[in-house]
Design goal:
heterodimer; A: mainly beta; five-stranded antiparallel beta sheet; 2 helices; disordered N terminus; B: about 350 residues; mainly alpha; globular
């Protein structure tokens, strides 16, 4: 315990390096981010397409166990499996979905680097699958875009990283049955949109037809 | 060696008064806070126009890789923790309870690696004071314990005292962000005042001024009694001789309290999961284990900060600056930094420039 008695302790070089790394990790980027994430979601994306035209994004969010359902509805209302009652879906929509409007429901769709706008989400539903809460909804594009004329980039992420999104399937983005057979999805790490104060590059998909 | 003497009644009264003020402010109508959802987002956000994505400069690759590895591990730990909590409900063995504690501890260690205002304040305080290593251990442990206590009181309070359901819990947790900054501002201002008025600062070593007196009688009186020499060095030195290291413990108690008022969302979510599984006490245990993990990581920040303080002191001493002047200068700059940072955060939140955040 003599180390704790020494006010003028001089650290060994190896410890100095470790401590310097910790200072760099924990203090320097402090103004930019906070200790996250707290919510983990596995997502599935299906692009609603007619030929090569993208009209909407159909999404499925599967929340990891530990998502605090009791903050939204009474736990006695949760079924073992299947869809929630309309009143409970409305409660989820009001308290754990609508506030994401400003963040475009964490859905990012870029054409030539420009973010596309979405209309109001449709068909919002909440169900229990394998003891996990699942959201499904459709996000229509404000202006449909032709993937044959330009390359689209689509991804789901939370800039603040309060929520950590991981794709359920590979490829992360699939197409509706009405999409042109020539359309393909190529996953990549989006270096243009660093999140969490620059600590991470989110995964996205490049769509071309 | 840090000496933790029995807490005086006045400290207990001050702590109780601080808690009472926080509870009153939480309950007071005052500024209207938007409700906060499970994604840590305010209801204000829904009505605001969609914001354009902002370009962020990436961190250096090695730091990024380390953070990402830690974050992936956190995700895994969260899964194991939730499964273990569910198993515990069904009456599994003691091994499950211990695994919950272990997962929570490791989760706490990793979760605290990310940046945060608490580590900033602890780092700034220890970097600017000639603190001992035990002080760093004490401050990091105390701040983590307060944060754990805050989460336990908040969730427990909502579950059994308010009987109002859990919907507003996140809103209250977010309110505590502002109160944490207000408290940090107050502690910072008080520390500044203490340093400027030489009440509490810098463990002055009482100099024995043998050259001051002209006669041998003067010298003998100063040398043997020390009292005269100390009086000549001002009020701070006199108080220091009277109170020992009490001032730094007092400052650290208040700094830790101010920093830790804001609960960690990770702890809140684990407590909620435990509550949902009917094993709240296991959740409390997990929260305390998480706090131990957080304290360990913050301790590393603290040790690094103490090292920086030593390095700066040595460099300045090499320039033949008096040690008292160096220590006061460092302490002043640290207190000033914490005060200005906290006041700016308060102003930004109160003016609506930035929103309160959950960590």
């Amino acid at each position: 315990m003599s180390i704790f008695r020494t006010a003028d302790a001089s650290y060994p070089p190896a410890l100095k390096r470790i401590l310097t790394l910790f200072l760099t990790l924990c203090i320097l980027p402090c103004a930019r981010v906070s200790a996250h994430p707290h919510v983990w979601i596995n997502y599935g994306v299906e692009l609603e397409m007619h030929g090569t035209q993208v009209d909407a994004v159909q999404e499925k969010w599967v929340f990891e166990q530990g998502f605090p359902v009791s903050l939204v509805i009474d736990l006695t209302h949760i079924p073992k499996a299947g869809p929630l009652a309309d009143a409970d879906v409305a409660a989820f929509k009001e308290q754990a979905f609508t506030s994401l409007k400003n963040a475009d429901y964490f859905t990012h769709l870029f054409v030539a680097g420009q973010a596309l706008q979405f209309d109001e989400p449709q068909h919002f539903a909440v169900a229990v699958e394998n003891d996990k809460i699942v959201y499904t909804f459709l996000l229509p594009l404000h202006k449909p875009v032709d993937a044959a004329r330009t390359t689209l980039e689509v991804g789901i992420w939370d800039d603040s990283f309060f929520v950590d999104y991981e794709p359920i399937n590979k490829p992360a983005v699939r197409f509706s049955s009405t999409a042109a057979a020539s359309c393909k999805s190529e996953p990549f790490q989006d270096h243009d949109h660093a999140i969490f104060g620059g600590a991470m590059f989110p995964f996205a998909s490049r769509i071309s037809c | 060696m840090l000496k933790l003497r029995p807490l005086r009644r006045s400290y207990v009264k001050q702590a109780l008064a601080a808690i009472a003020i926080v509870l009153f402010l939480l309950a007071a109508p005052g500024r209207t806070f938007a409700s906060t959802d499970v994604f840590g987002r305010s209801s204000d956000a829904a009505s605001a126009p969609a914001s354009a994505p902002q370009k962020v400069l990436p961190l250096p690759a090695p730091i990024r890789r380390l953070l990402v590895a830690g974050l992936q591990l956190q995700g895994e730990l969260n899964r194991h923790l939730q499964v273990a909590l569910a198993q515990q409900r069904t009456g599994e063995t003691h091994m499950v309870a211990w695994s919950i504690v272990l997962f929570s501890f490791i989760y706490g260690v990793l979760h605290a690696v990310g940046p945060g205002h608490g580590k900033l304040a602890v780092g700034a305080y220890l970097m600017s004071h000639r603190a001992r290593l035990t002080h760093a251990a004490f401050l990091s442990t105390w701040a983590a314990l307060v944060q754990a206590g805050s989460a336990i009181l908040l969730v427990g309070g909502f579950a059994w005292v308010f009987h109002s359901g859990m919907r507003e819990l996140m809103t209250y947790a977010e309110k505590l962000d502002l109160f944490s900054y207000l408290a940090m501002s107050a502690v910072g201002l008080w520390t500044l005042w203490s340093i400027l008025t030489r009440r509490d600062c810098c463990d002055y070593v009482a100099k024995i001024d043998l050259t001051h007196g002209t006669s041998s009688a003067d010298q003998a009186e100063t040398y043997l009694g020390q009292a005269r020499g100390m009086r000549r060095q001002g009020r701070g030195a006199w108080r220091q001789s009277r109170e020992g290291s009490g001032w730094i413990v007092r400052q650290m108690l208040l700094t830790g309290l101010a920093v830790g008022i804001r609960p960690c969302v990770g702890a809140i979510f684990v407590l909620l999961a435990a509550l949902a599984n009917g094993i709240f006490l296991t959740g409390v245990l997990a929260t305390l284990a998480m706090a131990a993990g957080v304290a360990l990581t913050v301790l590393l920040v603290g040790l690094a900060s103490v090292g920086v303080n030593r390095a700066i002191s040595r460099r300045l001493a090499a320039w033949r600056r008096p040690s008292e002047q160096i220590r006061r200068g460092l302490a002043l700059s640290g207190a000033l930094f914490i005060t200005v940072f906290s006041i700016l955060e308060c102003l930004a939140i109160l003016s609506g420039f930035t929103a309160t955040t959950l960590t």
